Amino acid sequence: LIHDPVVQYMNPSSLVEKCHPYFISAYTDQLTAVRAVVDNYTNALSAAIELDAKITSAGLAYSQSYADLLTLATRQALVALDVTLVQIADGGCDSTDIKAFMKNLGGVDATSNAVDAMYTAILIYLYLNSELGGYLLAPLLEYQQSGQYQLP
């Protein structure tokens, strides 16, 4: 049920860090996290219906087809996103080191945070929570500042 670690990230020091799902930081173990999701189903469903209605309403200002496309694109963008915390030496997670990774759903390679894929989805992330943009850019900017990045 829970993919953990979500990704193994090579930091600027060329060390591989394990990135764990952000949501488990609020729970003592994975089973407790799953139980919390199940127990909160009614509230989560209500929030999802409310968000879907808000996005649909915004799209209907243009057309039904646009509203349909907008809700589907939002779902696709959310499925592609993993918000993570980096594991520290004692086995816990650094709550200040939040990184987001976006699966490249349309590409043929196994990269994450491909700029072309992020570019197409960044507006919905900024609309939903503007901090997501920074979390997505953090791994790219760290890599660019590292010695591993060889382009001028």
Layout of helices and strands:
Layout: E1 7-10, E2 16-21, H1 30-39, H2 41-60, H3 64-79, E3 81-87, E4 93-102, H4 115-128, H5 131-145
Antiparallel strand pairs: 1-2, 2-3, 3-4
Helix pairs in contact: 2-3, 4-5
Q: Can you summarize this structure?
A:
This protein is an alpha+beta fold.
Features of the shown structure:
4-stranded antiparallel beta sheet, alpha+beta, single chain, 5 helices, 49% helix, 152 residues
Folded structure, characterized:
- By secondary structure, this protein is an alpha+beta fold.
- The chain has helices spanning 30-39, 41-60, 64-79, 115-128, 131-145; strands at 7-10, 16-21, 81-87, 93-102.
Report the order of strands and helices: EEHHHEEHH
Low-confidence stretches: none
Multimeric state of these chains?
single chain
The major beta sheet can be summarized as: 4 strands, antiparallel
Gap between N and C termini = 42 Å
Q: What would you call the structural class?
A: alpha+beta
Shape label: flat
Overall pLDDT metric: 86
Strand order of the largest sheet: 1-2-3-4
